[in-house]
Design a protein that fits this description.
Number of helices: 13
CATH topology of the largest domain: Rossmann fold
Strand content: 5-15%
Number of strands: 7
Helix content: 40-55%
Order of helices and strands: EEHHHHEHEHEHEHEHHHHH
Largest sheet: 7 strands, mixed
Distance between the termini: 35 Å
Radius of gyration: 22 Å
Number of domains: 2
CATH class of the largest domain: Alpha Beta
Strand order of the largest sheet: 1-2-4-5-6-3-7
Shape: globular
Length: 310
């Protein structure tokens, strides 16, 4: 992992790497989604694979394939806080790298790229971001359209950088920043660079409509269902006194209940509930069991949905 990059990126991470694989393995319940998104990413990074598939199953490259490959390689991940969208975005490159022979590089855009409000600063920083990535990948695509590498530009909290220009109170500098962002994404598309942009947001409606229209994939992440919660809890509580029935019961009570129309998020379970259960068992000098988990559950409520918490 390479720190910084002229302050434009929080870090630059190369895939595959062991630490990223550990993170992928921990995303229980999101396996099918991650696999599908990785396949989509490969399709945009290497359109030759799509053409070969079309020739194999249809006997020719059908117009629908050209329509797809002409789409902007832009994914928007939307959903509530704690549902895994940023985590998936950060490790998607690992899945692509391990399922193909591509080298993948993640460029997470730093919020510092928004600047300090000085006129023209945000535009300059965003333009510099795309210049840097373009320089890294301008020669990555071969003449036949194939590529052995993929870049992923991650824009987390996308509504902070790409909020709708339709807002009457939007500052001129913010409008200019959105314009620069759109120009950068369009430039990578027209240059056919093997770069995927992923924008994560808690508020899809707040994203500029022009950016939403460009997106090839808009994925709405939901809170985990019963099966997903049970799978995650079963993995985390493996080797403890929690039986399969205990896990199923805990998965049930972490769902929606009367008076609370929302269940626990992935981060509620992984980062709040389970660690607190471990600490409580440690305090009691006892083994982790259903009784302790139930006691802890009473004081660790789920995170409210973003709109409700706002």
């Amino acid at each position: 992992m390479i720190e910084g990059a002229e302050g434009l990126f929080a870090r630059i991470e190369e895939f595959p790497n062991p630490a990223a694989q550990t993170r992928v393995d921990s995303l229980v319940g999101l396996d099918d989604l991650i696999s599908r998104l990785a396949q989509d990413a490969v399709a945009f990074a290497d359109p030759t694979a799509l053409r070969l598939w079309s020739e194999h199953v249809h006997g020719a490259v059908v117009p629908a394939v050209d329509a797809l490959t002409d789409r902007t390689p832009l994914f928007i991940f939307s959903g509530d806080v704690g549902v895994g969208k940023t985590e998936v975005a950060e490790v998607l490159g690992q899945v692509v790298a391990t399922s193909t022979r591509m080298d993948v590089t993640l460029y997470p855009l730093s919020l510092a790229a928004r600047g300090r409000g000085a006129v023209g600063e945000m535009t300059t920083l965003i333009t510099g971001t795309f210049d840097r990535i373009t320089a890294d990948f301008i020669k990555a695509r071969r003449s036949d359209g194939t590529s052995e590498s993929l870049g992923i530009l991650l824009i987390d909290e996308g509504d902070a950088l790409a909020q709708s220009r339709e807002l009457a109170q939007m500052h001129h500098e913010d409008r200019a920043g959105v314009n620069a962002l759109l120009r950068g994404i369009d430039g990578m598309r027209s240059d056919r660079l093997p770069i995927l942009t992923i924008v994560c947001t808690n508020r899809l409606d707040a994203i500029d409509p022009a950016l939403r229209r460009r997106a090839a994939v808009i994925e709405v992440f939901e809170r985990p269902g019963h099966v997903q919660r049970a799978a995650l809890l079963s993995r985390l509580f493996a080797g403890t006194g929690m039986s399969a029935a205990d896990i199923d019961a805990l998965a049930a009570v972490t769902s929606e209940v009367p008076g609370r129309p929302y269940g626990y998020t992935y981060s509620d379970l992984r980062q709040r509930l389970v660690p607190e259960v471990v600490l409580e068992a440690f305090r009691r000098k006892a083994a982790i069991d259903a009784t302790i988990a139930t006691d802890v559950l009473r004081r660790v409520p789920p995170t409210k949905p973003f709109a409700e918490a706002a």
